[in-house]
Design brief:
Blueprint lengths: L2 H6 L11 H11 L5 E2 L18 H16 L4 E3 L9 E7 L5 E11 L9 E2 L2 E3 L7 E3 L2 E2 L1 E7 L5 E7 H14 L10 H12 L7 E2 L3
Parallel strand pairs: 1-11
Antiparallel strand pairs: 2-3, 3-4, 4-9, 5-8, 6-7, 9-10
Amino acid sequence: MTQQEQTAQVSEFTDDTVDAEQREAAHRERGTVRPITVVGNPVLHKPCATVTEFDDKLAALIDDMFASQRAAEGVGLAANQIGVDARVFVYDCPDDEGVRHVGHVVNPVLDELPADQRVLDDSNEGCLSVPGAYMELARPDYAIVRGQDLHGNPIAVHGRGYFARCLQHETDHLNGHLYLDRLSKRERKDALQQMAEKTPRYEVVPND
């Protein structure tokens, strides 16, 4: 059975709000903080490798990602943002009602939404890999991501508003795209200028 066939069988969405605080803390306390890669690092600009081994190494990576996300005060983090070429992201993100969502998705794929569900939200967007920069970016205000958990079981996650933006943003990362790539040339230049004028508040990997 292919990954797509597995995830297509998921009929219910993961409830990622249950015990959110405890689950995030458990991951984070087991993990080790790693520095964040920034725009220009090659690992951020190519599609990540599909995860095929659901083992202790993957579990440890997810723990490190939660620890790194918290240290950088982020709401989502993709594996290539700590230099790892693997299709996995973690999140600790509120929705527009302030409900906290905590989880991870391995080998994520975004659903293509029908036209009647594609309501665009042009809120500001930022990125740990573009520290200090924020730009308006239109994205659908609802998203569904299908993938696997750390044990290889199929899962599906959905969200609206800010959380939907997070799910789309992190999946983009694993496809080798930064939010900068969705901006006009002028907007991209503006964002990079914002980044150049500020000092990151967390440790980053210097580009050669």
